[in-house]
Specification:
The complex is a heterodimer of chains A (about 650) and B (about 625).
Chain A lengths: L3 H8 L2 H33 L9 H52 L4 H43 L1 H10 L2 H36 L1 H6 L5 H51 L5 H43 L3 H54 L2 H13 L12 E9 L9 E9 L3 E6 L5 H9 L6 E8 L2 E6 L15 H9 L1 E4 L8 E2 H6 L7 H10 L3 H6 L7 E2 L8 H14 L4 E5 L7 H14 L4 E5 L3 H5 L3 E6 L2 E6 L1 H7 L2 H8 L5
Parallel strand pairs in A: 3-10, 3-11, 6-9, 9-10
Antiparallel strand pairs in A: 1-2, 1-4, 4-5, 7-8, 11-12
Helix pairs in contact in A: 2-3, 2-4, 2-9, 3-4, 4-5, 4-6, 4-9, 5-8, 6-8, 6-9, 8-9, 15-17
Chain B lengths: L1 H10 L3 H32 L5 H48 L12 H14 L1 H28 L1 H25 L3 H21 L1 H6 L3 H53 L10 H9 L9 H20 L3 H4 L2 H13 L3 H6 L54 E8 L9 E8 L4 E5 L6 H8 L7 E6 L2 E2 L5 H7 E4 L10 H6 L7 H10 L3 H6 L17 H15 L3 E5 L7 H14 L4 E5 L3 H5 L3 E4 L7
Parallel strand pairs in B: 3-8, 3-9, 6-7, 7-8
Antiparallel strand pairs in B: 1-2, 1-4, 4-5
The chains are: A alpha/beta (about 650), B alpha/beta (about 625).
The structure holds adenosine-5'-triphosphate (2 copies) and magnesium ion (2 copies).
């Protein structure tokens, strides 16, 4: 019942813990004093026939003792809370920040409801552990010894009974504790599972209704609650049983002591005053042990919760290390060959690309403007004027490079990416296309550093700084900073803005949600970003404009509106790279054209990677990468790829030849 | 008080268990009093050196109390916790069953983390209602009576002194604490719910948080909330320490006063000396029963707040449901202004009282709920009192949709989304619904499914007004993949079977094949039993959508509605899915909402939402 890690935590607030324990000892002193005084008074009055006047002083002293005890009680309550408060807050912070470092991909393996339960309820249960269980544990060892010190000199037999029964109590507790341990863990799990289930149901309640299944959930909730009740009662039954054993031991021994004292009194082997003193102390002797028994359940709950908490804190990529080694061995030979070849190719294509880009830019602009109607053109002009607010940092010579990257979510499912290499620079607009499930979002996740490549490396060069994310391969050491250090990731992510496939809006206002891109942006900049994303029009039509609250996940906005906010947010971020993962799938064609325009406007300051199924968007990119079967199988401009009649050609044809 | 009574009502079915638990808790205290009192008598008596045999009864009594206390305590705890957990289950079911009819229209104001806090946390907090609010005063009262009678047998003065201090600890101190900590518990619960909601938001929005480097910010916010919670708890601990100290003093003082009163009586021989030790001990130990009373009010506040927060959700008035007539009259003047009186004359909902959408839930008879048996029929509600008024037409055969002069807005403060939309969809037609984002396409689906109620105009399904059907029946008619379809954190199989729990493996496969996802599922190591993670996160965007489509197909409803359901599919897959759908739904209605051209082109008819509005 003593979790090493929890004790480690307790060190942080050990002074409060010590204070609580010392106060407990003080309290024990007062108890002994009180019993002594009381016994003496009773003895004097009962056997020596004294009256009120003679025992006056002692009665007064008794009052003083009461006061002392009360003060001690109050202080120890305050200090014991302080012991817990510091630890709890610290632990919660560490948990959450650990979750943040794990990143979205890792964390999604867990369920939100369960995590939240651990973060809130789990941490709260530690209060009982630190504030009550832990100090009580110390007191249960110290106070009985202290009291024994008074009993033994007076009466060996009573002392003997106490001494013999006292160790039985912890023994019982350990025995029962072992048994209850697994139960209590089960209970914690079932509470967590219940939270997870309920959150899932609450978030999917509309879908359930659609299928006429929402009422059926009543039954499930009844079942889940019942299971929870059963496991909890199971734990409690054991806890109660341990309490029963404790209580039985303590009351029975008190009775034994009392009867023994009575019998010896009859034969005059002990003094009355001593006997009554011991009788008064007997329940106090067992009290700390019994209290420990009642805190026991709380203590166990704390340990169970702590286990989950530490499991989260310690979760990292342990498992994967094995996997990496496997792959490393498999691919070692291949890799060396391949990388050499491919870097060469990279460099070659780079040169070509660089020259290509310049020519394309002009063509591209021309192309779009031709497409725009007169009206849209005017709108664009207005838009551009309104954009003066948005800061655009030029970041020339920055590039993002993926080299021979392998990735598998689950080895049994096979690798999603099998050696993907590409590079793109600021000023370029690159499209990544491929069938659904080809691994495009995976590429985005890798580029963001949410997941790390099993093999291969990802390099970002921005403003002269070279950052490198690579698989923790022993040979790669010294190449920039290592993956594991959080600071690299933070720096890395400063360079990239991503609009994920399913954008999340936070509960807060529209402006808050856009501001997420850059918290220190002014309102003008927010408006400029919204205009750029084509969101300004609808926002200004909202009842409170930019200060309209959006529900969690944007429930009171349409799908396209959510996407526009997510885009505005990404535009606001001053990162040299922008990744759009299906970010325009909910926009109408005019809206999409507008995003094209925005990207054009941002071109000098941004390198853009567009992941899209709407090939119209892809067709206008400077370069199209076609991902298929884990590799980039085709690469080039729209017309080139069409001529090649490969994967891209088939996709375009299916799309209806629109592009 | 009202809250208290309504909570008491909840306990009614369990009164037997409660009485038993109370009895045992009374006996527990009595045993303890007995043990100490009889022991004191025994020792005092023994000091007078009587023959051993005289002591035998007291010795037996001591031993009996020594055992009985532990046994009674065990029984008391067992029964009271059993009752408590049964109550919790009732509460959870009750809450959900009231919540369910409200979704999504009335729930969008709540964050799901907040709702979760209510469903789990608040219900958990109500656990204390019996254990810590109701039981302690009742036990204390029983003990009071017992001890009072016992003491007055010796002298009424003892009994009165006891009474005074007992009241002090049992009533005065609790009341003081209540005054001191007013509102503290309520604030604590709110902070906790906030914390919950904030955490759900940050975990589900983790991608954005990491992308935009907001981790620090979120941590700070959470730390702020955690700090606030700790501060409140600290205050609470201070107060509870004070009251503990106070009741301790009162208990000791009571014993002390009794002693002071008894001493002269012993000296003057009016009281036998052997009872001198017993009396203060008896008084002191009986205070065990009031020890937990100081916290009663704070637990009560917690329970009441929790109860209030539970009911806040389920009893909130809602514009769309309860005040439907008011905006109607407003709307009428507007439409009259637009001289559309002719259509208005036809739309009967104008005069009809708004149809209550609330499904009669078994809330009033909570007693029945725990015995809820599986209901194979998804519409367990026969005719509730409210719905008797309207005869519920059967939905058979004919599923044409007629929308005429439809006006709708989400709330009176918001602008109209539909201003007189009219169009028809015949049965078997394949229709594409288009329009810029924000035009109201998804809103129309919401209206068709009666997740929201429209104000003016008519929607006719199979020739009859939509409002005359029961919402559940309507939802049977539509197979929908909504824009925000939710996949549950379970296996693919269970997600699919949601649509039709009785479906055979064959049917399920068939649906998956039509949605072009079967091959992929089969390629997974665990096939249909693969866990797909929260929100189907372990699938790619397009795979998720195809699972959702398969689910809608499995439902095999007469009308299929796909709201942007293929937006994340590649062009090839999209074409295949649409083709197989159209083949499957040859005779049935298909309504597709899409921005892409390909799905639109495949349909017989295109309805452009902005262009079918009056204006
Ligand atoms: N967290 C995960 N765990 C396990 N498998 C995953 C996970 N995420 C994705 N996959 C699998 O990896 C493959 C690639 O997924 P990814 O999301 O990268 O595809 P995508 O190209 O973005 O597809 P789409 O266009 O449909 O969004 C899919 O087969 C998918 O099932
Ligand atoms: N629950 C809601 N409460 C209040 N307003 C809403 C709600 N849902 C949508 N709206 C508003 O109603 C309008 C229509 O939304 P709707 O979701 O119907 O658009 P849509 O045509 O489906 O657009 P998209 O193509 O982007 O999905 C939008 O302006 C939106 O902000
Ligand atoms: Mg994807
Ligand atoms: Mg929509």
């Amino acid at each position: 019942m003593l979790d090493k890690r929890l004790l480690q935590e307790a060190r942080r607030t050990r002074c409060f813990l010590w204070l609580t324990i010392i106060l407990g000892l003080f309290s024990a002193c007062f108890i002994v004093l009180q019993a002594g005084l009381l016994a003496r008074i009773i003895n004097r009055v009962f056997l020596e026939g004294q009256g009120l006047a003679e025992v006056k002083i002692m009665l007064g002293l008794l009052l003083a003792v009461f006061l002392g005890r009360a003060v001690v009680t109050w202080l120890s309550e305050v200090f014991s809370h302080k012991t817990a408060a510091g630890i709890k807050e610290d632990l919660r912070q560490r948990l959450l920040s650990h979750l943040f470092t794990l990143g979205p991909n890792k964390i999604k393996d867990e369920s939100t409801g369960e995590l939240v339960n651990s973060l809130v309820e789990g941490v709260e249960t530690l209060e009982a552990y630190f504030a009550r269980y832990l100090p009580q544990l110390a007191l249960a060892a110290l106070v009985p010894l202290f009291i024994l010190g008074f009993v033994f000199p007076l009466d060996l037999l009573s002392g003997g009974i106490m001494l013999l029964t006292a160790p039985l109590i912890p023994l019982f507790m350990i025995l029962i504790g072992k048994w209850a341990d697994s139960l209590s863990r089960k209970q914690w799990q079932s509470l967590s599972r219940m939270s997870a289930h309920f959150l899932d149901v609450l978030q999917g309640i509309t879908t359930l209704k659609l299928f006429g299944r929402s009422r059926a959930q009543l039954e499930v909730i009844a079942r889940v609650s019942d299971r929870f009740r059963e496991t909890t009662l199971g734990v409690l039954r054991v806890a109660f049983l341990s309490a029963l054993a404790l209580e039985l031991l303590s009351t029975l021994s008190t009775a034994l002591v009392a009867v023994g004292l009575g019998l010896r009194l009859v034969y005059g082997r002990i003094l009355f005053e001593e006997a009554i003193f011991i009788l008064l102390l007997a329940p106090e002797f067992y009290l700390p042990l019994r209290l420990l028994g009642t805190q026991f359940h709380a203590g166990m709950a704390g340990v169970s919760a702590a286990e989950r908490i530490y499991a989260i804190l310690e979760s990292d990529n342990k498992q994967e290390t094995n996997r990496e080694q496997e792959i490393n061995e498999e691919e070692k030979i291949n890799k060396v060959k391949r990388t050499k070849k491919e870097t060469k190719i990279e460099q070659d294509t780079d040169k070509i690309q660089a020259t290509d880009n310049k020519q394309d830019t002009n063509k591209e602009k021309h192309y779009i403007k031709r497409e725009l109607s007169q009206e849209q053109f005017k709108e664009l002009k207005v838009m551009e004027n309104g954009l003066s607010g948005l800061r655009l940092k030029c970041a020339e010579n920055s590039f993002l490079l993926m080299e021979n990257v392998y990735y598998a979510y689950d080895r049994r499912q096979g690798e999603v990416l099998k050696g993907v290499s590409f590079k793109f620079s600021v000023g370029e607009r690159v499209a990544l296309v491929g069938e659904s499930g080809a691994g495009k979002s995976t590429v985005a996740g890798l580029l963001m550093g949410f997941i790390k490549p099993d093999l291969g490396k990802i390099v970002c060069s921005s403003q002269g700084a070279l950052l490198c994310l690579d698989s923790p391969h022993p040979n790669n050491e010294g190449q920039g900073e290592q993956w594991s250090s959080g600071s690299v990731l933070t720096k890395w992510r400063e360079n990239i803005a991503l609009v994920p496939q399913h954008a999340h809006l936070f509960s807060g206002t529209v402006a808050d949600n856009i501001l997420l891109g850059r918290t220190d942006a002014s309102r003008e900049e927010v408006v400029a970003a919204a205009k750029l994303a084509g969101a300004h029009d609808f926002i200004s039509r909202l009842a409170q404009g930019y200060d309209t609250p959006v529900g969690e996940g944007g429930t009171n906005l349409s799908g396209g509106q959510v996407q526009r906010l997510a885009l505005a947010r990404a535009f606001l971020k001053e990162a040299p790279f922008l990744i759009l993962d299906e970010a325009t799938s909910g926009l109408e064609e005019a809206g999409e054209a507008r995003i094209q325009e925005a990207l054009e406007y941002l071109r000098p300051a941004r390198g853009v990677l567009i992941i899209a199924h709407r090939l119209a968007l892809a067709a206008q990119a400077d370069r199209i990468l076609v991902l298929s079967e884990g590799r980039i199988v085709e690469e080039g401009k729209h017309e080139e790829l069409l001529q090649r009649r490969g994967v891209y050609y088939r996709l375009v044809k299916a799309y209806g030849g629109a592009a | 008080m009202k809250d208290f009574l309504s909570l008491l009502k909840l306990l009614k079915p369990y009164r037997l268990g409660i009485v038993i638990a109370l009895l045992f808790s009374f006996l527990t205290v009595v045993s303890n009093v007995g043990l100490m009192a009889v022991s004191a008598v025994l020792i005092s008596w023994a000091a007078l050196h009587p023959p051993i045999l005289d002591l035998m009864t007291t010795i037996v009594a001591v031993r009996f109390f020594g055992i009985s206390r532990a046994v009674f305590r065990y029984l008391e705890r067992y029964f009271s916790h059993d009752v408590t957990f049964k109550i919790l289950k009732t509460l959870r079911i009750d809450f959900y069953s009231k919540l369910e009819p409200l979704a999504p229209a009335c729930l969008k104001a709540y964050r799901s983390g907040d709702l979760l806090a209510r469903l789990v946390g608040e219900v958990e907090a109500l656990k204390d209602f019996y254990l810590r609010v109701l039981a302690p005063p009742l036990t204390a009262f029983l003990v009071l009576i017992g001890v009072f009678i016992f003491l007055s047998d010796f002298d009424l003065k003892f009994a009165l002194v006891f009474l005074v201090f007992y009241f002090l600890t049992g009533i005065i101190i609790p009341l003081t604490l209540k005054r001191l900590s007013r509102g503290l518990k309520e604030e604590m619960l709110e902070v906790k719910a906030d914390l919950n909601a904030r955490l759900v938001d940050s975990i589900q929005g983790m991608t954005e948080i990491t992308v935009y480097g907001q981790a620090e910010n979120q941590l700070r916010l959470v730390a702020g909330l955690g700090g606030k919670l700790a501060r409140l708890q600290g205050k609470m601990a201070g107060f509870s320490g004070l009251t503990q100290a106070g009741s301790q003093i009162a208990m000791n003082l009571a014993g002390w006063c009794v002693l002071v009163l008894a001493i002269p009586m012993v000296a003057s021989g009016r009281l036998e000396g052997i009872f001198l030790a017993m009396l203060p001990l008896c008084v002191g130990t009986s205070f065990e029963a009031v020890a937990s009373l100081p916290l009663v009010f704070s637990y009560w506040e917690e329970s009441r707040t929790a109860w209030k927060r539970l009911r806040e959700v389920t009893e909130a008035p809602n514009y769309l449901f309860s005040q439907a007539h008011e905006p109607q009259s407003q709307a009428r003047t507007l439409t009259q202004h637009l001289s559309l009186t002719q259509t208005l004359g036809q739309s009967q909902p104008q005069t009809q009282t708004p149809v209550p959408v609330q499904i009669p839930t078994p809330n009033s008879s909570t007693a029945k709920i725990p015995t809820l048996t599986p209901e194979p029929n998804p519409n367990p509600n026969k005719t509730g009192t409210q719905e008797k008024v309207i005869s519920v037409p059967e939905l058979t055969g004919q599923y044409s949709l007629e929308i005429k002069d439809l006006w709708f807005r989400y709330s009176p403060e918001e602008p109209w989304i539909f201003r007189g939309v009219s169009f028809n969809i015949l049965q078997g037609e394949k229709v594409a619904l288009t329009g810029p984002s924000g035009a109201g396409k998804s809103t129309l689906v919401n209206l068709l499914l009666r997740f929201y109620e429209y104000e003016i105009g008519t929607i006719k399904l199979g020739g009859k007004e939509l409002k005359s059907y029961r919402p559940e029946d309507i939802r049977q008619v539509f197979g929908v993949v909504s824009q925000t379809t939710h996949l549950f954190n379970t296996t693919i199989r269970e997600n699919l079977l949601l649509a039709k729990p009785s479906a055979t493996e064959q049917e399920m496969w068939e649906a998956a094949k039509k949605a072009k996802i079967h091959d992929f599922i089969q390629s997974l190591p665990q096939g249909y039993d693969t866990y797909i993670g929260e929100g189907g996160y372990k699938l790619s965007g397009g795979q998720r959508q195809r699972v959702a489509i398969a689910r809608a197909l499995l439902k095999n409803a007469p009308i299929l509605v796909l709201d942007e359901a293929t937006a994340n599919l590649d062009a090839l897959a999209e074409r295949e899915v649409l083709e197989s759908l159209l083949e499957l739904f040859q005779a049935r209605t298909v309504l597709v909402i899409a921005h892409r051209r390909a799905p639109v082109k495949k349909m017989d008819k295109v309805i452009d939402l902005p262009s079918v509005q009056y204006e």
